[in-house]
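Troubleshooting: if your tokenizer reports a length mismatch, compare your output against this known-good record of 51 residues.
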Amino acid sequence: MRGLRNDRNAQTIVAGHAFVQNLRRGHYELGLDDPPARRVAAAFAELARAI
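Known-good structure output:
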């Protein structure tokens, strides 16, 4: 693996990771009706429908 070539790529990865962790912990109103094990998948399904 070559790693991240610049700081912008690293920032994107870190922001995406933080977003998924916050989804898992229920900090957003996305996927709250589903159990924690399915919360991320449900949240991405909701986001896909919104787009």
